[in-house]
Amino acid sequence: MSNVEILDKTKKKKILNKLEEEFGIKKLNHLFIKSGNNRLRIFSGSLSKEELNTIAKKIHVELIGSRIVNIEKDDIRISFDAINIPEIKSQINKNIIEITDDQAKEWMKGNDLDIEIVDKARFIIIKNKEDFLGVGRVQGTFIKNYVPKERRVK
Q1: What's the CA gap between 45 and 89, in Å, rounded?
Q2: How many CB atoms within 10 Å of residue 99?
Q3: Sign of dihedral through CA atoms 43, 56, 68, 8?
Q4: In this predicted model, what pLDDT tens digit does every residue of 34-46 receive, in sequence order?
Q5: How many angstroms separate the CA atoms of 18 and 22, rounded?
Q6: Are 90 and 23 contacting, i.e. CB atoms less than 8 angstroms apart?
Q7: Confidence band of 60 (pLDDT split at 50, 70, 90)
Q8: Which of 44, 55, 70, 94 has the fewest CB atoms found within 10 Å of its own CB?
């Protein structure tokens, strides 16, 4: 049985405030569903909250909606898939680092980037030209790669 919580307006607003602060995302007209250990999903279908709760008791919650963020202590890490949802991508305007084509090839292989970032958030969006390639964690002299293994170039 899945443990899910459909966030009320107050909790949703708190998450949206953090998304705006970190990435510039101001508005998402979706239900926010908390599942597992601080994972948030968004759902924009026509099911009611009651119907979603009933479904969540019968099936694995990862089948409902799209994962948007993981919350790690006071940090929020937007998911790899969420950065390219058109409604979200069009709003992202903060904590973005532009990389070269060669760096993009290495990034998509799953390698960390040897770039020192000063005065940035803990998590940043990696961009090459018009494409968002993922999210990285700033770790002083390098950026840790969070591209899922199944999405990496071999």
Answers
A1: 20
A2: 19
A3: positive
A4: 877 788 889 888 8
A5: 6
A6: no
A7: low
A8: 44
Q: How many helices (H) and strands (E) does the chain have?
A: 4, 9
Locus of tokens 């960390």 = 112
Place of tokens 């019968």: 58
Alpha-carbon distances, residue 55 vs 4, 41, 86, 123 (angstroms): 10, 15, 27, 33
* CATH number for the segment(s) 95-154: 3.10.450.720
Nearest CA to 24 out of 81, 78, 98 is that of 78
Token duo for residue 122 = 């803990």
Please provide the size of the chain in residues: 154
Q: What tokens appear for 120 in the block?
A: 């940035």
CA distance 137 to 51: 37
Report residue 86 CA to chain centroid gap.
Answer: 13
**Hey, what are 56's tokens?**
């969540």
